[in-house]
Amino acid sequence: MADRRTTPIAVRSPFRATTTEIDWADGHKGIYPHEVLRGYCPCAGCQGHSGEVRFISGGDTSIKTIEPVGDYALHVAWGDGHDTGIYTFRYLRALCQCAECVPPERRDERGERQRL
Ligand SMILES: [Zn+2]
Ligand SMILES: [Zn+2]
């Protein structure tokens, strides 16, 4: 049976929006600012092979298309043509930036890293 925590029931990414929202089957409302989605693009070009998830700043954060891949991931194509990112639902769930998943103290920490 599918894990409700990693099963999206709705994805909202309106044209020109700066945040995508995902409603998960367990009732959790996922919040994904596009700079976070882009910065944590999971493709090999962005993440390399270090095994550690890196934040890459500076990419175009406008989403051209966002579409499901099978029943396990979302494919995101960015405004600058970068379209190799396949975001698995498990990865997206872990990336959630809602107030519940990212308490204020962790938010500050990430802000620091983004300024580097
Ligand atoms: Zn990438
Ligand atoms: Zn959350």
The distinct ligands, each listed once, are: zinc ion
Helix coverage percent: 25-40%
Return the CATH topology.
NE0471 N-terminal domain-like
Mean pLDDT equals 90
Which regions are unreliable across 5 or more consecutive residues at pLDDT < 50? 112-116
Radius of gyration: 14 Å
Q: How many DSSP helices? A: 4
What attributes characterize this protein structure?
single chain; alpha+beta; NE0471 N-terminal domain-like; 3-stranded antiparallel sheet; 6 strands; about 25% helix; disordered C terminus; binds zinc ion
Plain-language structure description:
There is one protein chain. This protein is an alpha+beta fold and 116 residues long. It has one domain (4-104): NE0471 N-terminal domain-like (2-Layer Sandwich). It has four helices and six strands. It has helices at residues 34-39, 44-47, 89-95, 104-115; strands spanning 8-12, 19-24, 29-33, 63-69, 73-78, 85-88. The strands form two sheets. Strands 1-2-3 form a three-stranded antiparallel β-sheet. A hairpin with a 6-residue loop joins strand 5 (73-78) and strand 6 (85-88). It binds zinc ion (2 copies). One zinc ion binds at residues 28, 30, 96, 98, 100-101. One zinc ion is lined by residues 28, 30, 96, 98, 100-101.
Set out the fold topology.
Elements: E1 8-12, E2 19-24, E3 29-33, H1 34-39, H2 44-47, E4 63-69, E5 73-78, E6 85-88, H3 89-95, H4 104-115
Antiparallel strand pairs: 1-2, 2-3, 4-5, 5-6
Bound molecules: zinc ion (ZN) (2 copies).
